[in-house]
């Protein structure tokens, strides 16, 4: 008997496979196709030759990396965390979310997720024994706080948030975080699981982190991703920030799930944090967004606001009445550009005729893709 009977091959795998078969430009999956920072490469080349860097790390993370994370969080958000008790290095953000839910959610619990949402959330919730409760974001892909409050019951254990948001690229406002704080204050049993993997990829509007909200520190957990931050998605390194009373339980699961994370990658990142400026990342990706938006001028697509992440949503309502899955497959086969239909991020399959482009690509790739898209 399957524990995940409704889970099949993801749309991401389907579109990437089709992209290969049709020799299409792949703007579907969220991974960059350009080189990583040369400094990171140089550090890694040195670290991998050090014997001690190829053996197990401490379960919670490489000591120098944990110290670097403490400094990064203080620098970025003004929050002082204890690296020994409030930080945990994980094998990517997905493992972090899974581990948190395995440790802190139980049978009969409910977890609110805001649709459209990343597809791994629901499976992680179900495997923990809890029940996912889907609440739709509003038509602008921002929280509907009245609907969220109505969805809370005595069994609600978590609200799982994602800001900056995948797939829309929207960013929450100060008012949204005030509403979240009010919600948590009114519901003492409620915890916040904040997926912040795109935290450093923001543009004109800056991301507000849970780590900046002192009212939430004892009831909130944040998840971050080096893979997204430094466009090294294949390294699968992330981290959790959580108060000690919650982190103690998370570590119990983590030690039996992966025990520790890639040692050479951790040592490399520890050294890299001393030389990199994370504040430059937003400018780098904003240039990518601006190039793509400029290239799409004259197309029949309507581009929606992209405030962060490396995703751009577009409406094709002026082009076709097809459902978004059919439309994306057709433009892949006929025009050789792979994209992602947004309806797959909604539990109810809600289809607003929106598709998602990933602009974390070389300018050459974006130019080639835009030329094809403008012929649709």
Task: Provide structural commentary.
- The chain is α/β, with parallel strands linked by helices and 376 residues long.
- Helix content is 38%, strand content 15%.
- The chain folds into two domains: 116 residues, Aspartate Aminotransferase, domain 1; 235 residues, Type I PLP-dependent aspartate aminotransferase-like (Major domain) (Aspartate Aminotransferase, domain 2).
- The strands form three sheets. It has a seven-stranded mixed β-sheet, sandwiched between helices. Strands 9-10-13-12 form a four-stranded antiparallel β-sheet.
- Helix 4 packs parallel to helix 5, helix 4 packs across helix 9 and helix 11 runs parallel beside helix 13.
- The mean pLDDT is 95.
- Keywords: Aminotransferase, Pyridoxal phosphate, Transferase.
- One of its GO terms (molecular function) is kynurenine-oxoglutarate transaminase activity.
- Belongs to the class-I pyridoxal-phosphate-dependent aminotransferase family.
- This is Aminotransferase class I/II-fold pyridoxal phosphate-dependent enzyme.
């Amino acid at each position: 008997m399957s524990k995940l009977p409704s889970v099949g091959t993801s749309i991401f795998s389907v579109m990437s496979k089709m992209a290969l078969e049709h020799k299409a430009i792949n703007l579907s999956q969220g991974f960059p196709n350009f080189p990583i920072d040369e400094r990171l490469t140089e550090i890694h080349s040195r670290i991998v030759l050090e014997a001690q860097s190829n053996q197990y790390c401490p379960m919670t993370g490489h000591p120098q990396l944990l110290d670097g994370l403490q400094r990064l969080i203080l620098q970025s958000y003004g929050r002082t965390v204890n690296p020994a008790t409030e930080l945990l290095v994980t094998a990517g953000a997905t493992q972090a979310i899974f581990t948190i839910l395995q440790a802190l959610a139980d049978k009969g619990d409910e977890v609110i997720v805001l649709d459209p949402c990343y597809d791994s959330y629901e499976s992680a919730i179900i495997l923990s024994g809890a029940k996912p409760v889907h609440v739709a974001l509003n038509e602008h892909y921002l929280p509907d706080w009245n609907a969220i409050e109505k969805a809370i019951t005595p069994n609600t254990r978590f609200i799982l948030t994602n800001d900056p948001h995948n797939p829309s690229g929207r960013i929450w406002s100060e008012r949204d975080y005030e509403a979240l704080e009010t919600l948590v204050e009114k519901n003492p049993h409620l915890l916040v699981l904040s997926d912040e993997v795109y935290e450093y990829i923001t543009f004109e509007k800056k991301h507000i982190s849970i780590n900046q909200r002192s009212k939430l520190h004892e009831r909130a957990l944040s998840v971050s991703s080096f893979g997204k931050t430094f466009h090294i998605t294949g390294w699968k390194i992330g981290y959790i920030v959580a108060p000690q009373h919650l982190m103690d339980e998370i570590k119990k699961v983590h030690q039996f799930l992966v025990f520790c994370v890639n040692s050479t990658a951790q040592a490399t990142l520890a050294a890299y944090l001393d030389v990199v400026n994370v504040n430059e990342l937003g400018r780098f990706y904003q240039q990518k967004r601006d190039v793509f938006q400029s290239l799409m001028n004259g197309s029949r697509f309507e581009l929606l606001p992209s405030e962060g992440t490396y995703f751009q949503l577009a409406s094709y309502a002026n082009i076709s009445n097809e459902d978004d899955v059919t439309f994306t497959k057709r433009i892949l086969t006929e025009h050789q550009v792979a994209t992602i239909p947004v309806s797959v991020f909604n539990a109810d399959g809600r289809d607003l005729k929106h598709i998602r482009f990933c602009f974390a690509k070389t300018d050459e790739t974006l130019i080639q893709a835009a030329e094809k898209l403008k012929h649709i």
